[in-house]
Amino acid sequence: MYKVAILGSTGYVGEELVRLLYNHPSVKLTHLSSHSYQSEPYSKVYPHFKDLVDEVCIEDDLSKIDADILFIALPHGIASKVVTKELLATTKVIDLGADFRITSEAYDTWYKVEHFGKEVLEEAIYGLCEWNREYIQGARLIANPGCYVTCSLLSLIPLIKEGLIDTSTIIIDAKSGVTGAGRGLNIGTHYTECNESIKAYGLTSHRHTPEIEEKLEAFGGKKVTLTFTPHLVPMNRGILTTIYASLKPGVTNHEVNKVYNTYYEKEQFVRLLGDTSIAETRWVKGSNFCDISFKVDERTNRLIIVSALDNMMKGAASQAVQNMNIMLGLEEDTGIHYVPLFPA
Amino acid sequence: MYKVAILGSTGYVGEELVRLLYNHPSVKLTHLSSHSYQSEPYSKVYPHFKDLVDEVCIEDDLSKIDADILFIALPHGIASKVVTKELLATTKVIDLGADFRITSEAYDTWYKVEHFGKEVLEEAIYGLCEWNREYIQGARLIANPGCYVTCSLLSLIPLIKEGLIDTSTIIIDAKSGVTGAGRGLNIGTHYTECNESIKAYGLTSHRHTPEIEEKLEAFGGKKVTLTFTPHLVPMNRGILTTIYASLKPGVTNHEVNKVYNTYYEKEQFVRLLGDTSIAETRWVKGSNFCDISFKVDERTNRLIIVSALDNMMKGAASQAVQNMNIMLGLEEDTGIHYVPLFPA
Amino acid sequence: MYKVAILGSTGYVGEELVRLLYNHPSVKLTHLSSHSYQSEPYSKVYPHFKDLVDEVCIEDDLSKIDADILFIALPHGIASKVVTKELLATTKVIDLGADFRITSEAYDTWYKVEHFGKEVLEEAIYGLCEWNREYIQGARLIANPGCYVTCSLLSLIPLIKEGLIDTSTIIIDAKSGVTGAGRGLNIGTHYTECNESIKAYGLTSHRHTPEIEEKLEAFGGKKVTLTFTPHLVPMNRGILTTIYASLKPGVTNHEVNKVYNTYYEKEQFVRLLGDTSIAETRWVKGSNFCDISFKVDERTNRLIIVSALDNMMKGAASQAVQNMNIMLGLEEDTGIHYVPLFPA
Amino acid sequence: MYKVAILGSTGYVGEELVRLLYNHPSVKLTHLSSHSYQSEPYSKVYPHFKDLVDEVCIEDDLSKIDADILFIALPHGIASKVVTKELLATTKVIDLGADFRITSEAYDTWYKVEHFGKEVLEEAIYGLCEWNREYIQGARLIANPGCYVTCSLLSLIPLIKEGLIDTSTIIIDAKSGVTGAGRGLNIGTHYTECNESIKAYGLTSHRHTPEIEEKLEAFGGKKVTLTFTPHLVPMNRGILTTIYASLKPGVTNHEVNKVYNTYYEKEQFVRLLGDTSIAETRWVKGSNFCDISFKVDERTNRLIIVSALDNMMKGAASQAVQNMNIMLGLEEDTGIHYVPLFPA
Question: Where is the Semialdehyde dehydrogenase NAD-binding domain (chains A, B, C, D) (predicted)?
Answer without folding.
Answer: 3-139
